[in-house]
Amino acid sequence: MTEATSEKQSILAGVIDKFAPREGVGETNIPSLFFIHHTSTYGPVRGVYKPSVCIIVQGEKEILLGQERLLYGPNHYLVASVDLPVSGQILEASASAPYLAMKLEFTPAEILEVMKEAAIQIVSGEDPKRGMYVNEIEAPILDVAVRLASLLEKPEDIPVLAPLVKKEILYRLLQGKHGSALAQMAVQGSYTQRIRDVIDHIRNHYDQSFRIEELAEIAGMSVSTLHRHFREVTAMSPIQFQKQIRLQEARHLLLYDDADTTDAALQVGYESVSQFSREYARMFGFPPRRDINRLKEDWM
């Protein structure tokens, strides 16, 4: 890490610490920009990553995507180009050196707009890339991240400058080593965009059974091609993807809506409560009720 990079990270850490003094994930006055602040190790926590870039300036985090392990810290940034169910765990954090990070969410339309303005094209028929990746932090990306976060110091500048600075961040990401993976998610007709359509369908209908042929029709692919490309983008099969979404939604119902195990199982699409309980325990480490009681005790 160069002295200039270290200095920029210190500036960014100071802004995050100032505008996100509380524990956890906090919204900022800049649309789609979030700050994360943890004073102790945390997790593993399961959730769905939306398309976004996450930059850590202090601490270390591990993401599990399917069976893949992505480890990143201040020397890296992480990009999710599609909605992905993951497990995340903060590995390094303390009261004296808290975990500090910023997360900027974006949409396919925003990526496509930047691509058009910069005349960025992708190779037609190129195989899809993994929908989440870690890359070494580059000075231009860190520089523009500092400028975006620093707009919080002058809120009157946010409406005009924040959209422009966000465009610059997306441009830098598209110019990076894995930029094609990000570009493909936005281009109509690309393999990744067609897999994104399938992901959206599963997310919107996770509580319903589906035939793999239906998903292949949505993607405009053969069944075997869909399986191959879906696994390449998400690191899991469509059925595994749906199961993770179902179980995460069930946990939310149990934890925040006080649903009982049977109601939660039925609401997310399980016909067998016993099967639901087995798969829930396999994913979260404990049977449903025991898991929820444990989480509530941790909060007290």
Detailed description of the structure:
The chain contains twelve helices and ten strands. With 300 residues, the chain is an alpha+beta fold. The protein has two domains: 3-184, Regulatory protein AraC (Jelly Rolls, Sandwich); 240-299, Orthogonal Bundle (Arc Repressor Mutant, subunit A). The protein has a six-stranded antiparallel sheet, covered by helices on one side. It has a four-stranded antiparallel sheet with strand order 3-8-5-6. Strand 5 and strand 6 (68-72) form a beta hairpin.
- CATH fold annotation of the largest domain: Jelly Rolls
Numbering strands along the chain, what is their spatial order in the largest sheet?
1-2-9-4-7-10
The SSE string, one letter per element, is HEEEEEEEEEHEHHHHHHHHHH
Largest sheet: 6 strands, antiparallel
Q: Give the CATH level 1 class of the largest domain.
A: Mainly Beta
What oligomerization state is this entry in?
A: single chain
Strand content: 15-25%
Low-confidence stretches: none
Question: What secondary-structure arrangement, pairings included, does this model have?
Answer:
Layout lengths: L2 H17 L4 E4 L5 E6 L3 E8 L2 E7 L1 E6 L2 E5 L3 E5 L3 E9 L6 E7 L2 H11 L13 E5 L2 H12 L7 H18 L3 H6 L6 H14 L7 H8 L3 H12 L3 H19 L4 H7 L5 H12 L3 H12 L1
Antiparallel strand pairs: 1-2, 2-9, 3-8, 4-7, 4-9, 5-6, 5-8, 7-10
In a nutshell, what does this entry contain?
The protein is α+β, with helices and mostly antiparallel strands and 300 residues long. It is 49% helix and 21% strand. The protein has two domains: 3-184, Sandwich (Jelly Rolls), CATH 2.60.120; 240-299, Homeodomain-like (Arc Repressor Mutant, subunit A, Orthogonal Bundle), CATH 1.10.10.60.
